[in-house]
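Sequence only, no structure available. Ideas?
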Amino acid sequence: MLVIRDAQMEAFSKLSESEFQSRAFKHLQQVLPELCSAMGEPAVRQSIAQAYRKARAYGLTYELDILRYLNLMYVLGFGFDTDSRYPWASEILSDSALRSGTKARKLMTAARTALAERKASGG
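Reply:
I predicted one. Tokens follow.
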């Protein structure tokens, strides 16, 4: 029987986080090059690490779901998860009955609706 110790799992997790951060950094550079340049690499990498930690704490476990969370941070604001303008975000994220993919999809749907409403109202 194969036994994986906690220290080994932590090493796997850190490797996974590091790989995610590298891919996420490249993604942000491709889709938001001006903003990334203005923020500077250290700040962008810090925001990615913050998104990763927060997304994982909310139960987002898949890379795509964490990347969606990161994208929402850049679209809605880095504190969108607790922002009173987006009460749906904390409701969705704190729902422990939802699985990772379902949470991420619900977040994206609610964000699209909120952005469309904001645009329609001229905001």
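Residues 19-120 form one domain.
Hope that gets you unstuck.
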